[in-house]
């Protein structure tokens, strides 16, 4: 395979990872929205469509392994393939978390949440923005944006702690609310893990560009 052909294959691979990221972001958004609106039809659709996300991840892995086996890439090309391989895994796991949220919505049935959902949708918005920004940093090889994603994880963690405290208070005040509060704790946990996975993607971008996994503290936030 010529240099031009290899570059073309790497570009196709990166595009496929981008498509997978878009599908995952859609799954997360729809899962949380269906939970908020109690739309069980959409929740079931998110569950059903997770198989497609899984298969897309496996397709990307197969392409990565094939390129490594047949082209024996070196240096930056190899880092790119390894980064795409790991990012596909992270995205597939995010899809699993979206599926988990949708399954929780189905478990809750037609029952409304304990209270109008405010912080959980905010967590979802922040987590999906981290996902978009991490993928943007991949496309542009933007180290600054990648570091900003890593720093944004603290905001999601703070929201998770806030949701956790509030739901525990519900449980203490009303034991009958324990089951529903537990469901929402699972949702919050899944969103917190999605943000963690977005951070992992950003760290892979840093690895791709620099060859190092360590996040350097002296990169500008601007």
Question: What features would you highlight for this structure?
Answer:
222 residues, mainly alpha, Methane Monooxygenase Hydroxylase, Chain G, domain 1, elongated, disordered C terminus
Account of the 3D structure:
The protein contains 6 helices and no strands. With 222 residues, the protein is mainly alpha-helical. It has one domain: Methane Monooxygenase Hydroxylase, Chain G, domain 1. The relative contact order is 0.14.
> How many structural domains in the coordinates?
1
DSSP helical segment count: 6
Mean pLDDT: 91
Helical residue percent band = over 70%
Secondary structure: elements and pairs:
Blueprint: H1 3-37, H2 40-71, H3 75-108, H4 119-140, H5 143-173, H6 178-210
Short synopsis of the structure:
The protein has helices spanning 3-37, 40-71, 75-108, 119-140, 143-173, 178-210.
């Amino acid at each position: 395979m010529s240099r031009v052909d290899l570059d073309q294959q790497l570009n196709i691979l990166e595009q496929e990872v981008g498509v997978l990221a878009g599908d995952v972001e859609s799954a997360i958004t729809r899962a949380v929205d269906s939970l908020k609106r109690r739309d069980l039809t959409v929740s079931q659709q998110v569950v059903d469509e997770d198989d497609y996300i899984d298969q897309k991840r496996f397709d990307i892995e197969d392409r990565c392994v094939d390129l490594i086996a047949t082209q024996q890439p070196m240096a930056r090309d190899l880092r790119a393939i390894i980064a795409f391989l790991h990012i596909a895994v992270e995205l597939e796991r995010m899809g699993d978390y979206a599926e988990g949220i949708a399954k929780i919505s189905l478990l809750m049935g037609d029952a409304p949440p304990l209270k109008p959902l405010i912080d959980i949708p905010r967590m979802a918005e922040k987590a999906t923005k981290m996902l978009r920004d991490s993928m943007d940093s991949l496309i542009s090889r933007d180290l600054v944006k990648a570091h900003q994603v890593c720093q944004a994880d603290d905001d999601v963690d703070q929201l998770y702690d806030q949701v956790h405290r509030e739901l525990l208070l519900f449980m203490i005040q009303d034991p009958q609310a324990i089951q529903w509060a537990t469901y929402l704790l699972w949702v919050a946990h899944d969103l917190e893990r999605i943000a963690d996975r977005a951070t992992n993607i950003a760290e892979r971008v840093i690895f791709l560009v620099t060859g190092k996994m360590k996040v350097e503290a002296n990169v500008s936030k601007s």
